[in-house]
Hints:
The chain contains no helices and 5 strands. With about 120 residues, the protein is mainly β. The strands form 2 sheets. Strands 3-4-5 form a 3-stranded antiparallel β-sheet, with no helix packed on it. It has a two-stranded antiparallel sheet with strand order 1-2.
Amino acid sequence: MQRPNVVAWPNLPSDQRGPTHWFNTSGFQVAPQFTLGSSSRNPVRGPDYRDTDIAFIKHTRQREQLDLEFCAEIFNLTNTPAFGQPIGVPGSSAFGTITSTATDPRVMQFGLRLNY
């Protein structure tokens, strides 16, 4: 893959970043054919990944050899979207935008197990 030339600082301040404009796209210029551009391998970082999961487990002994276990698990507790990586292909109409998420929405599951 051909690397572009870096002509300006590509990183934007955090208050100017968003899914529709994650980095300074005018900071890159397509290098001439058959030349290697001045850009490093990963000049821009994508958004952070944050996720909170929680589980509740309750054991209840019914008899000496009988145990009932209830389990409730919640994945992505805060239901916060984790955005994917920005499109990094110079010349693309979506260059610098984020078009996907990296996680599922909040998921809850419950389980009941009888041990004897």
